[in-house]
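## Example record

The block below lists the input lines for one assembly entry, exactly as stored, with component labels intact.
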Amino acid sequence: MSRQKLARLGLDLPLLPTSTVGSFPKTPELAAARTKYARKELTKPELEALEKKATEYWVRAQEEIGLDVLVDGEQYRGDMVAHFAEIMGGFRTGGLVRSYGNRYYHKPIIVGPVRWPGPMTVAWWRWTQSLTTKPVKGMLTGPYTIMDWSFNDHYPDRKSACLALAREIRKEVEALIEAGAKIIQIDEPAISVRQEELPFAIEALSLTVDGLPAYFITHACYGAFETIYPDMLELPVDNLDLAISNSALDLLKIFEKDPFTKDLSLGVLDVHSHKIETREEIRARIMRGLRVLPMERIWVDPDCGLKTRTVEESRAKLAAMVGVVRTLRAELPKTP
Amino acid sequence: MELTLTTAGSYPRIGDAPDLQRHRQAYGQRERGELSPAAFGEVEDEVTAVAIREQIEAGIELVTDGQIRWYDPYSHLARRLEGIEINGLLRLFDTNVYFRQPVVRGRVHRRGPILLPEYEFARSVSSRPIKPVLTGPYTLARGSILGGAYASVHALALAYADPLAQEVRDLAGAGATVIQVDEPAILRHPEDLNVLEEALAPLAAERGTSRLMLHTSFGDVTPLYRDLQAMPVDVLGLDFTYGPKLAMLIAETGSDKSLALGLIDARNTKLETREGVFPILDTVLPALKVGQAFLMPSCGLEFLPRDRARQKLETMKRLRDAYLGGRS
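Predicted structure tokens for the full assembly:
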């Protein structure tokens, strides 16, 4: 069903399309440059030049590995919410709060009406797409997650903050589509934290994407999916990208009970492990997905962004994944 | 009506100003081996003393030690129990904060007092009474990976109850008048109310003349409110930020126990106003049968930046004083 949509959008993807969730590790050169920039030893244009160089590195790497749908690798991003909060109107950088151990971050505060400031991701998308003939995904953080990971001093409640964000992020989606993006991923990793709020999280994503001509993917990870399934199938997107390789493999058991109605991006690499998955492990994870969904509806990717891995680990993991998928493509049509 | 001001547990360790980075810097130095555990302990003492002082300056009458020494609500207690190892990170309920998950390897028992030295230090630097806070046996069990001799959350909760009861005995013996037991996990597993009750019984039996405050947060307590009235505790600490109907339910059913009203949202920076807080007090307070109630933040303050945590406490005191002043 969604393969027809992809075809209508002019996308000719092989079976079991391979992609990644968004982030790649910063290249060592860029990591050093970011430290220098923080110490004011480097200018913004100097940093940006290195961000572009690192992005180009990752585009070439994805092509060499043989991935089908590419990403820009988020070499210019720090945090997936703060990045947008810093650009959008209505936010202020908040004080430091602890995440765990000795890790702290500046949690943004909504202090006024949130406002789309003009295209936020389009220039990066356009530039990245210019480097390759493979489709590049537009990458956004969803309204529910931006709301949940920010403080709210302005709106009367969480729902109204979320819906206001949705209306503004829609403008970014429109701008990406106008620039030529055909696949847009909207990340909602916070979506499963409050079961009772799922209805307005769905309403918000509908405000963001309804009626717009693109293939939409939503990535969610590390949540208690069993508490929001099958209701989460109401999310108005074509493809749900779920962390399957880690603990959530049992999710597929849940699908046997309530059939999964969308395309599924099967996260088959554990991004929090240094270990490179064996071909047998990856194959077993994909086969498990194929037992509950037809192969036309499955995409294959890591279970989350790869930014915490090294460049070498990321490349090795992805190469193993693509190798298995290629073998399966050759084998599977022959097996009923 | 007495409305005592208290906090719910944690207090931010660092702030945004350069002179408020002490704890973070020392932590980094200790991780790199540049600071001895003893020297780091002294920094924790200093930061604890400041957290207590800030609460007192803001007008809090029953303070906590800010849980400055706690890595998280689970591993701080579990790592010092026999039979437990500490595992990787897991998201803490609906927050964007992570805790280290205990893994049960053998029989769970206490090697020695865990919170007593922390309580005694806090008391030595505080002019106001200290309320020790501990994570309850049911929540600890729910957050642990089962193993050892324990095949169910039920069995493990009872196993945790024994060392925690010894903690309660130590703290009550040292003079704590109120001891808070956090059991947020029950909100997601109402089917386990009987397990909670059974696991709290040993703690209640050791409380002596101190009062146990059962605290729940990170979810709506309204559906469980009536059942919690049956728990073997003296005070119920309630997070009002999730339950729009909680105040009305209390008004309708009353309370045999003292209540700690978590009306100040410790998860969001927006400061509370009379318009938000007074109507709830008007609804709830007349229904209470016990003379003393508490006013508190909805949960620990560590979810907020330090300056805003303090402003929340100052706001809470201002609202309490205005409310009682307007009615006396």
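Chain A is about 40% helix and 15% strand. Chain A has a mean pLDDT of 92.
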